[in-house]
Amino acid sequence: MQFKISTAPFAHQDNSVSGIMRQVLYAMIPGIATYVYFFGWGIVVNILLTSITALICEAIMLRLRQRPLRPFLTDNSALVTAWLLALALPPFVPWWMIILGTAFGIIFAKHLYGGLGYNPFNPAMAAYAMLLISFPVEMTHWPALASLSGHYPNLFHSVSITFTGQPLGGLTLDALSGATPLDTMKMALNQFHTIEEIKDNPLFGTYGAKGWEWIGGVFLLGGCWLIYKRVITWHIPLAVLGTLFLISGLFLLLDPDIHPSPLFHIFSGASILGAFFIATDPVTAATSNKGRLFYGVGIGLLIYIFRTWGSYPDGVAFSVLLMNMAAPFIDYYTQPRVFGQ
């Protein structure tokens, strides 16, 4: 009898790495469709470019490392990295930045550490952080809500912006782009505006930003589906969002004029996407259930710290990367008790 040997991460029951990664991709599709509905087709262009680049870089690195191509190209891990990076990047960034970031994530953040199962950092977030630090101006051109800007970037406009820097039909990039809700909130607070004054901006909806709160809600449903399918556990998402809710609620009680509500923090930016799809990466997160709670609490705290006092308005990527470094330490001190002791 011959036993098949594969590398980590390992899955119990009848699941496989490719099956788990495929379900993660399925869970992201409704959120992507909602994004397209509100902001146009730019995110689809991002996904196509990151997916093609990720598969090519994966194949090159596997060949250089003398590993078989088919098992690793079909495990869908490269596509998960590509889709997460595509969702993190503004749809209006140049094509070469998309390719550069994806190649960095696959080559430097994944394969140079030994490939899937050995990388200490989430490859998508490492790539995003590299691009944000290196090209801060290009990483701030986010699409404006179509109902507010009066223009809906179709597929041809999105392709033109990505490859030429300008949309078709005489439009300008400024007409299709705008500040994110977190950017707007942070800049207004720095100018000593109160929360009530900031909410008069048509960008904001009931408890978050128009469009973004719907996108966050749909990703929340996708994350709950992953928990139902037992692809992920509830520990990290609950710890991340619960901590973010509690700490922002505490500061809201202390001074409601300068601190946004907990629902604004949860349904703006990448909080929900990060809690369910990024922080739960089986390779870079803590492994025990108790460790996952500490890991998630750390991410939630760091997100609020970055958003409130840091230079970057979101902070999810840096929070995840910092807690990636802390995951081995957390695992060491939260090991389950050995049976019989």
Tell me briefly what this model is:
This protein is mostly helical and 341 residues long. Helix content is 62%, strand content 1%.
Structure in words:
- With 341 residues, this protein is mainly α.
- 62% of the residues lie in helices and 1% in strands.
- It is built from 17 helices and 2 strands.
- It has a two-stranded antiparallel ribbon with strand order 1-2.
- α4 (77-88) packs across α5 and α6 crosses α17 (316-333).
- The longest helix has 23 residues, at 17-39.
Layout: helices, strands, pairs:
Elements: H1 17-39, H2 42-64, H3 69-73, H4 77-88, H5 95-108, H6 123-134, E1 142-143, H7 146-149, H8 155-164, H9 173-176, E2 177-178, H10 181-190, H11 195-199, H12 212-228, H13 235-254, H14 262-266, H15 271-278, H16 289-309, H17 316-333
Antiparallel strand pairs: 1-2
Helix pairs in contact: 1-4, 1-12, 2-4, 2-5, 4-5, 4-6, 5-6, 6-17, 12-15, 13-15, 13-16, 16-17
